[in-house]
Amino acid sequence: MVWIVSAVVAVVALWIFVNAPKRAVVALTHAALRCRERKDWTGARKFYGEAYTLAGKMKEPLKSKLLWQIEILRASLLHREGRIREAEDLFRQGFSKANAESRPEHVLLYQGYLCWGDLCTDDGRFSEAEVHYRQAVTGDEQAGNIASVIFDLQRLADALIRQERRGEAEEIIHRAITLETKVVHAQLLSQGKNPAEHPVISMSLPDLHFCREQYEDARRLYREKVAFWEKQVTRPDNVDVGHLQMRLALCEAKTGHRAEAVEMFTRAESTFQREWGEKHPKTSAARAAKAALTDEEVPVR
Questions:
Q1: pLDDT digit string, tens, across residues 65-122
Q2: Which of 262, 255, 159, 259 minimizes the C-alpha distance to 211?
Q3: Measured distance CA(11)–CA(256) in Å, rounded
Q4: CA–CA separation, 285 and 129 (whole Å)
Q5: In this predicted model, what pLDDT tens digit does every residue of 191-230 receive, in sequence order?
Q6: What is the model's pTM?
Q7: 205 with 221: CB under 8 angstroms?
């Protein structure tokens, strides 16, 4: 009996010894996440760096499996800081390892593609953004992450609209609306309610009007969304208030409300500056759109 207990203790001790570095890497990445939630980019960069150094000392195949994940996380942080070129280099580096080492259903892959798409959008490369958004859609669909698919589709539709491929964008938006309805119906049924008695108001509906260049209807709906989300202290990660403000500002301009458009571009600039930083491309885009409108030029996107 004693030797059995001793053997068990030895196995547990060996497991702890082997897995201790991995657990340390995970702990460091969690610490980085907490820093990011506080917008402490310096702290997040420090913890990711320590995790990367520690992972780099491990043996294969664990080494590569940890490194690609940290590289994608660091790339998303660099994008957050507006360091576009550095971020893209790390995305390429991370995904080159991920394609060889990861399971295709790994959730970080989809999140990484989505962030890479956002980076390309911020850099004005909408066709490249489209590619990454489609990769995010495919991954989330295969994993059954319906809520994430809706978010992916909204981003994909935006990339298509920016390329003036409005017909394709409308099809994508309809897919998002269908999924939104499915999710809401499931929630109502789980609450014992009849979906037929509760009409669904799609969060993607203003995007549909915007895509169709029905700017008066889009303006009304974006105003409602902006007014609601600006008041929320906390909100889901997929709610981009700055993006909504930019859309509303453009609708104001398209419908001849120039003063309101300038004011909304100003609010978008302030939102991006607070959430992304003074030098981030999102902040610069809002500032440039306001300047163009002030010079009596309506922005094209």
A1: 889 999 999 999 999 999 999 999 999 999 998 876 556 557 788 899 999 999 999 9
A2: 159
A3: 73
A4: 17
A5: 788 777 766 667 899 999 999 999 999 999 999 999 999 9
A6: 0.86
A7: yes
Structure tokens at 12: 């547990």
Enter the DSSP assignment of 299.
-
Ordered domains of the chain (ranges, CATH): 214-301 (1.25.40.10)
Contact 50, 35 (CB under 8 A): no
Nearest to 139 by CA among 107, 162, 92: 107
The DSSP 8-state label assigned to residue 1 in this structure reads: -
Rounded Cα gap, residues 227 and 18, in angstroms: 53
**Sign of the dihedral through C-alpha 190, 194, 198, 199:** positive
Q: Measured between alpha carbons, how far is 132 from 130 in angstroms, rounded to an integer?
A: 6
Closest to 121 measured CA to CA, from 83, 160, 90, 171: 160
280-300: b (≥16 Cβ within 10 Å) or e: bbbbbbbbebbeebeeeeebe
How far apart CA 129 and CA 209 sit, in angstroms, is 22
Do residues 66 and 27 touch, judged by C-beta distance below 8 A?
no
pLDDT, one tens digit per residue, over 247-258 is 999 999 999 999
> Rounded to whole angstroms, how far apart are CA atoms 159 and 285?
15
Query: What is the C-alpha radius of gyration for the chain, rounded to an integer number of angstroms?
Result: 23
State how far the alpha carbon of 233 is from the alpha carbons of 39, 230, 236, 241, in Å: 15, 8, 11, 12
Whether cis (ω within 30° of 0) applies to the bond prior to 61 is yes
Please tell me the distance from the alpha carbon of residue 7 to that of residue 208, in angstroms, as a whole number.
64
Of the candidates 264, 258, 156, 261, the residue with the CA atom closest to the CA atom of residue 211: 156
